[in-house]
Design a protein that fits this description.
The complex is a heterodimer of chains A (about 600) and B (about 600).
Chain A lengths: L15 H9 L2 H16 L20 H16 L9 E17 L2 E18 L25 E3 L5 H32 L17 E3 L9 H12 L8 E19 L4 E18 L5 E10 L8 H20 L6 E7 L1 H11 L31 E5 L5 E2 L2 E2 L16 E5 L2 E2 L19 E2 L7 E2 L3 E6 L5 H14 L5 E12 L9 E11 L5 E4 L2 E5 L1 H6 L1 E4 L4 E9 L2 E9 L2 E10 L19
Parallel strand pairs in A: 4-6, 8-17, 16-23
Antiparallel strand pairs in A: 1-2, 1-5, 2-3, 5-6, 6-7, 8-24, 9-12, 9-16, 10-11, 12-13, 14-15, 17-18, 18-19, 18-20, 20-24, 21-24, 22-23
Chain B lengths: L1 H16 L8 H16 L8 E19 L2 E6 L3 E12 L2 E2 L3 E2 L14 E3 L6 H31 L17 E3 L10 H12 L10 E17 L4 E18 L5 E10 L8 H19 L6 E8 L2 H11 L10 E2 L26 E5 L5 E2 L2 E2 L16 E5 L2 E2 L19 E2 L2 E2 L3 E6 L5 H14 L5 E7 L29 E7 L5 E4 L3 E3 L9 E4 L5 E5 L25 E5 L3 E9 L19
Parallel strand pairs in B: 5-12, 7-9, 11-21, 20-27
Antiparallel strand pairs in B: 1-2, 1-3, 1-8, 3-4, 3-6, 8-9, 9-10, 11-28, 13-16, 13-20, 14-15, 16-17, 18-19, 21-22, 22-23, 24-28, 25-28, 26-27
Helix pairs in contact in B: 2-3, 4-5
Classes of the chains: A alpha+beta (about 600), B alpha+beta (about 600).
Chain lengths: ~600, ~600
């Protein structure tokens, strides 16, 4: 699912109930919580060892890396006489330094800085073909092993850091031995697995050292800005929330493994998120969001541009309150570039994450589709984490190395309409023995194949006007009263299991009816739903207006930043359902400052 | 309205009297103004009007720091301001509270949370907006709860006739603004680093952590009866946890907790350092101590151990919480009545013993009690409460939510739930330490034992250092006996000649509130023991489902206990039956030379 700024794939193969619950909760509250949680726990942050790494010249590896390598070597030799020594051991320490400033209705609500280092340990026993990480078939998810991060000192004290590594390695190794025994028994008592690929892919050792990026934030200035950006909403008594969040962070990752990989990477990010919601008379909550992402503070828009966007938000919210509600409908529709990006992310992206093809409870929609046509011939889909910018927009799904120490690279998944490849972590599947650098995770989770920058490329696109004309033609042709245009979007979610409907849901914010005479009318209260293969087969054509959606995608390995870049697309038939709606009426008393009594 | 104005006037007068508070508090003004408007006009069509509204705003400032092995792990200082609205509809006899609907949870504009985030700055217009939204949501939820509760009660017989809300006298109270400046974050970091350093020289300890906190919670409260208060609750703490394993794998955990109102109120750094070193020494010695499979017989709990067993097995049941009216009676199994409720008027301690709770007690035997408070979270001023008189249970600790048998508040609402202030247990027939030990030996001899057991330290459930250990508890809600008393960390065999021999890994079994009337002797001259209150037993409706819940309500409540050494004639102590993890496969890196 993609809450707000936030693209999230609630991929809920194993947790249908949680997905259901998420859907049942009003979007808005959850979005904010998610963002807070997301940013307070996972945010990229900056390492103080900045001092050790001048911006120019050859960056030196931080002392923390030496401590990690030394402890790793000590464990390797210390365990070699055990009956089942680990065949693979890795440490990843994520150093996050961040600034968080938020305001509501012109007043400051939070202003904080934080710094933390979290450790993830991967200990594997057995061998590449069969190890302790293999999923137990017929068993539910193991919450015991789901979140395992441990705090590590932020001071560069090798002794203190190594003492944490030591305690965790011991614990994880013992746990790995227990897991391996369970796996070995499970294999004996169950029928043979369909997918006979190995449990772990061999990858070449990588070495890279990036200087730790500095965190460049004038906190006082941002406190002033979040006030300024939310002040216009304060004029209205029917705006029930109006927030601006600014999050600046630098995330420096230190990674070592027993195959010889040593990495130090540093990723700054600067995000601004403005959200507001109002309510229609019938109780429906109507949200609007604007989000901005950049890898430098200068990359964010200036105040005038944000304030202009705020004015548009206010106008949109007023218009939405007055807009009619759409009844369930099937018919042709256009998705704007951003909406199409989220559509591809949910409908397609989550279904080509490699490890899912191995799990027998997953629907594996595309597993047998290699070299088959899945899209019109002019369409190609590429995941490119090496691409850091699209036009004037930084892409949040870019990275140099994934969380398994594998270098990133572009992966063409659909070439001229033909399905070519899955996104691969170091968990192989049949026919795909190697990683393609998409093993990703949030701190504390085990990595799985996740999306990066999704790029939908279309040859010979139409102009936007031509696409709209094609929509109107289709509406006339089918005798429909109108077509729909999905212009802005807050996110979506999808379910890829077998026991629950294999479906997706995209949550639009700004939707218009287009009548046969070309008239446009804003409507509210619809969600775009469907099943993946049907929806994909109805894609007709695209325009040349490429949109970028930057968000945070949530799935079993936690929240990871992703981008989706797509042109506007015309779909010959979509289905919309009524949005789940709050039954609570607007406040009984007028806003205090509008109370004339 | 008039009443509100009067109280406003009263509080202004009082504020004027104290120069520190001379300027009017903008947050309080916004709360009062919205309260007046809501009481006058908030009403949904023909449904009940609120008969009571209270706002509680909590402003939290301060710093927390943690360190291990001489290095800083984290520091946080994120100020916050939250406000909760408590709206009651119906009448005190039967209102919307003390009810748990089917687990749908609250809904509405201030959705699931039931509280709002206030701006950190004194922006009157925005403060009013948030108070307005909180009130609106609380009122709507109250209406729904009341109608569902009335429907549920209608079809039931033999319901508890206790009213839902106890009367209280309007009070005005203002704590003066603190003198001096808040501590510099760097001072906390330094203290945390320094106190964690001794473990660099303690090979026996596997994992250790030091947390140093210094926070102040400023609570502002107004209600529709005219109560207005501003209370400042500063609290500084040092919590050190350390753990290791014996050669047989059994876990050995110990802790150190010190509380003061401010950093200056904590013991001196040198004293704390000495205590940390002692903690390391204790664990080192324990590793090589022998184990004892099982012991049944007389046990003397001394000092901290006495206070801790009394705290966990007895004091934890003193808060008076009530079994809520349940929409779905099938949920009834999840809630149990407080076993002490049945014992009001009955003997719960030996006749020579009395128990008093006095939240206003600022000092005990020269020790400052940082947990003292002048007014509780319902705006009730606590007084000295005799809980047990000559062995007979007289009352429980209450808030304005009464329970059967105790229908008025004695000023114990601390956060969402009642909690003690300072509990003082006194035995008229208290013995000297020597006499107690002699009594233990004598009783052991009578039982035909080669030795008796003295316990000197007992674990606390909230100070657990191991991941996955402590804190988590599943099972029914509601006060109940049976949560296990923490392990005896330090215990000795006491032989007839007075010789003592350290034993490790003993856990008390079956030590419950009812056991305390069988205390056979106790000591004199206890000193105060200040700790986080063990709430494992004390919840009824989980706090976050209660109207008027604030995020800070789940924070630990600090209490003090003054409990003499306690001798029981028959206690079971045994080795844990859980499986133990093997000791580390390779040595700690710093000691692998």
């Amino acid at each position: 699912m993609i809450p707000a700024r936030a693209a999230a794939g609630i991929r809920s193969t194993r947790l249908p109930y949680s997905a259901y619950k998420l859907k049942a909760v009003p979007m808005r509250g959850r979005v904010l919580l998610r963002i807070l949680a997301g940013f307070l726990t996972t945010v990229p942050l900056a390492a103080r060892p900045a001092a050790a790494a001048p911006a120019t010249g050859q960056p030196k590896p931080a002392p923390i890396l030496a401590a990690m390598s030394a402890e790793l070597a000590r464990w390797q030799s210390g365990l070699k006489d055990q009956p089942k020594p680990p065949y693979f051991l890795s440490y990843e320490i994520t150093d996050t330094q961040g600034v968080f400033v938020s305001g509501a209705f012109g007043a400051l609500t939070q202003s904080a800085e934080n710094r933390r280092r979290m450790l993830d340990v991967d200990v594997r026993v057995g061998d590449y073909a069969l190890d302790n990480t293999r999923a137990l078939r017929g068993a539910g998810p193991s919450f015991l092993d789901r979140f395992t991060a441990t705090e590590v000192p932020v001071d560069d004290s090798p002794d203190a850091i190594r003492s944490v590594l030591w305690a965790q390695t011991d614990r994880r190794y013992k746990r790995a031995l227990e897991q391996l025994t369970a796996v070995e028994t499970n294999i004996r008592v169950k029928v043979e697995q369909e997918d006979k690929s190995s449990d772990f892919a061999k990858e070449p050792a990588a070495k890279a050292t990036e200087p730790a990026a500095p965190l460049k934030v004038d906190r006082k200035a941002w406190e002033q800005r979040v006030r300024k950006f939310t002040a216009p909403f304060a004029r209205y008594g029917d705006m029930y929330e109006a927030n601006a969040f600014f999050v600046a962070s630098v995330e420096t990752r230190y990674y070592v493994n027993s195959e010889g990989t040593t990495l130090q990477t540093s990723q700054p990010s600067y995000r601004l998120f403005v959200s507001a919601f109002t309510k229609a008379e019938d109780g429906m909550e109507l949200p609007r969001y604007e989000s901005y992402f950049a890898v430098t503070p200068e990359g964010l828009p200036d105040d005038a541009a944000v304030l202009k966007a705020v004015d548009v938000m206010i106008a949109d919210l007023k218009a939405l309150r007055a807009a009619p509600v759409v009844d369930p409908y099937t018919g042709p529709a256009i998705l704007s570039g951003r909406a199409a990006g989220v559509f591809f992310h949910e409908v397609f992206g989550h279904r080509i994450e490699g490890h899912r093809q191995k799990r027998e409870e997953d629907a594996q929609t595309f597993k047998k589709k290699i070299n088959e046509h899945v899209l019109p011939e002019r369409f190609s889909v590429v995941f490119d984490p090496t691409l850091s910018r699209m036009g004037n927009t930084d892409l949040v799904g870019a990275y140099r190395f994934d969380n398994e120490g594998v270098a990133s690279r572009p992966v063409t998944v659909v070439e001229n309409g033909v399905f070519k490849s899955f996104l691969m972590s170091r968990t192989p599947i049949e026919g795909f023995p190697d990683s393609n650098g998409h093993g990703r995770k949030q701190v504390g989770f085990a990595p799985v194949a996740r999306q990066s920058n999704l790029l939908v490329r279309v040859k010979a696109p139409l102009s936007h006007e031509a696409l709209v004309k094609a929509l109107i033609d289709k509406v006339r042709e089918e005798g429909k009263p109108f077509g729909l245009v999905f212009d802005d979007i807050q996110g979506g979610f999808t379910l890829t299991g077998r026991t629950i409907p294999n479906a997706f849901n995209v949550l639009p914010v700004m939707v218009y009816r287009i009548y046969p005479d070309g008239r446009r009318e804003l409507v509210r209260g619809v969600d775009l739903i469907g099943t993946p293969l049907t929806a994909f087969s109805k894609i007709v054509s695209a325009d040349d207006q490429v949109g970028v959606f930057n968000g945070v995608c949530g799935a079993e390995s936690g929240g990871v930043p992703v981008s989706a870049v797509a042109p506007g697309i015309l779909i010959s038939q979509i289905e919309v359902q009524k949005k789940q709606k709050s039954s609570e009426r607007p406040p009984l008393l007028p806003a205090p400052f509008e109370d004339k009594k | 309205m008039t009443r509100v104005l009067l109280s406003l006037l009263a509080s202004l007068l009082l504020a004027a009297a104290s120069p520190a508070a001379a300027q009017e508090d903008v947050v309080l003004r916004a709360m009062k103004d919205e309260l007046a408007r809501s009481m006058e006009r908030l009403r949904l069509e023909s449904l009940d009007k609120p008969y009571f509204i209270a706002y509680r705003a909590q402003e939290r400032t301060g710093t927390t720091a943690a360190a291990t092995f001489g290095a800083l792990v984290s520091r946080a200082d994120s100020p916050s301001r939250y406000l909760a609205a408590e709206v009651r509809v119906g009448e005190p006899k039967l209102d919307n509270t003390n009810f748990l609907g089917s687990m749908s949870g609250p809904s509405g504009i201030v959705s699931g949370r039931g509280f709002v985030t206030l701006p950190l700055e004194d922006d009157y217009k925005e403060l009013r907006r948030q108070v307005w939204l909180a009130t609106d949501a609380a009122y709507k939820r109250a209406l729904e709860d009341l109608s569902r509760k009335r429907a549920a009660v209608q079809n039931r017989q033999n319901s508890d006739p206790t009213p839902d809300f106890a009367a209280a006298t309007p009070v005005t109270w203002t704590d003066p603004a603190p003198a001096g400046r808040p501590p510099v974050a760097a001072a906390l970091e330094t203290l945390a680093r320094d106190l964690s350093a001794p473990f660099e020289d303690t090979p026996a300890v596997q994992v250790s952590r030091v947390s140093v906190d210094s926070v102040e919670v400023l609570t502002r409260y107004v209600n529709s009866e005219g109560t207005v208060f501003t209370r400042r609750t500063p609290l500084a703490s040092v919590v050190v946890t350390a753990s290791t394993q014996a050669a047989d794998g059994l876990a050995l955990d110990d802790f150190l907790a010190a509380y003061g109102r401010t950093l200056d109120g904590l013991p001196k750094t040198a004293e704390l350092l000495a205590a940390v070193k002692e903690l390391g020494t204790r664990l080192t010695q324990l590793r090589s101590a022998p184990v004892l499979d099982r012991y049944n017989g007389p046990v003397l709990f001394e000092g901290q151990a006495a206070a801790e067993v009394f705290h966990q097995a007895f004091a934890a049941l003193l808060p008076a919480v009530r079994r809520p009216v349940l929409e779905n009676e099938a949920m009834g199994r999840m809630f149990e009545d407080n076993p002490l409720l049945e014992r009001l008027g009955a003997k719960v301690l030996p006749e020579s013993m009395s128990l008093v709770d006095d939240p206003t007690l600022a000092e005990q035997g020269g020790q400052t009690l940082p947990n003292a408070y002048a007014i509780d979270d319902d705006g009730v001023r606590p007084t000295r409460t005799v809980v047990v008189e000559k062995g007979i249970l007289k009352t429980l600790l209450t808030t304005r939510a009464p329970v059967r048998g105790v229908e008025t508040s004695n000023g114990h609402r601390r956060g969402g739930l009642p909690a003690p202030g300072t509990l003082v247990l006194v035995d008229e027939k208290g013995l000297t330490a020597e006499a107690l030990k002699a009594e233990l030996i004598e009783r052991a001899r009578k039982r035909g034992k080669d030795y008796g057991i003295v316990v000197r330290r007992v674990a606390h459930p909230l100070y657990a250092s191991r991941e996955g250990g402590g804190g988590m508890s599943f099972g029914p809600f509601g006060p109940r006996e049976g949560a296990k008393v923490g392990a005896a960390i330090v215990a000795y065999k006491v032989f007839p000649d007075g010789r003592e021999e350290l034993v490790r890994n003993l856990e008390p079994s079956g030590l419950v509130a009812a056991t305390f009337k069988e205390i056979v002797a106790s000591g004199q001259n206890a000193s105060a023991y200040t700790v986080a209150f063990d709430t494992r037993n004390a919840t009824s409706v989980p706090p976050f489902l209660r109207p008027g819940f604030l995020p800070g309500d789940t924070a630990h409540v600090v209490v003090s206990l003054v409990v003499p050494s306690l001798l029981f004639d028959d206690v079971t102590l045994q080795k844990p039956t859980r499986e133990a993890s093997k000791p580390p496969l390779i040595k700690h890196p710093s000691f692998d030379k």
